[in-house]
Amino acid sequence: MRHIAGVLWRPRSTMAALVATPTYLAAWAVLLVIGLALAAGLLSTNIGRQALVDERVRVIEALGGRVDDDRYARLQNSPPYATYVTSAGRILLTPPVTLLVAAGLMALARADGGRLPWAAAMAVSVHAATALVVQQLVATPLHYLRESITSPTNLAVVLPMLEEGTLAARLFGTIDLFGLWWIWLLAVGVSVATGRPARRYLVRLLGVYVLVAVIVAAGMAVIGGS
After folding, report:
1. Which of 37, 140, 166, 224 sits a CA distance of 20 to 30 A from 64?
2. Are 209 and 154 in contact (CB under 8 A)?
3. Does residue 10 sit in helix, strand or coil?
């Protein structure tokens, strides 16, 4: 818990301590339990389950599909819980993504002639996810109040002038404000390992993040026929 709090208040010194003496299993367990508890709490309510069904319908229709009355009834009887994990930025909290990010951080440090061992890369990847858990702490009550599991902290929400369904709206809807914070924490972690400025890695990681957002938005636009 000390390192989790440290990432929020003293990110650089905390990341330096984690790289020097890697530890992550306890923090990983705490962050995953908090995320699961928030999800279980929301989805245990009628409002949460209905929001889950509505999100699934929205995605199907955005991809050019159609939900008739029979299919809608089936969704209500068997809420598609996987939709919650794979929508918005929640997928970034899943263990496979954490492992993939750690491998990417190792490669990024090595490309600069630095050294970031696996344990240290995992420590950085896990503790950077604190930003994503904070996002869930903020978003979950808003999901309940808004009766929607669409992220209330994505850039499309703060840019209301974007027309819904357009490529721009889909692109900015894929980029989350807390996701940008997460990217910055990852950049700081690699920076303390290599001794190079964090902005060097921030630009590269942001490039990957935005590229993925562009691919997702363009894919939805093409499949949805927009």
Report:
1. 140
2. no
3. coil
b/e burial code for range 98-128 (CB count within 10 A of at least 16 → b): beebbebbbebbeebeeebeeebbbbbbbbb
Domain ranges, ordered by start, for the chain: 2-224
Q: Chunked in runs of 10, what are the mean pLDDT values of the chain (226 residues)?
A: 87 94 95 94 92 85 76 84 78 91 94 91 96 94 90 74 60 79 95 92 88 67 49
Contact 19, 191 (CB under 8 A): no
Dihedral class, residue 195 (left if φ above 0, else alpha if ψ from -120 to 50, else beta): left
Indicate the DSSP class of residue 91.
G
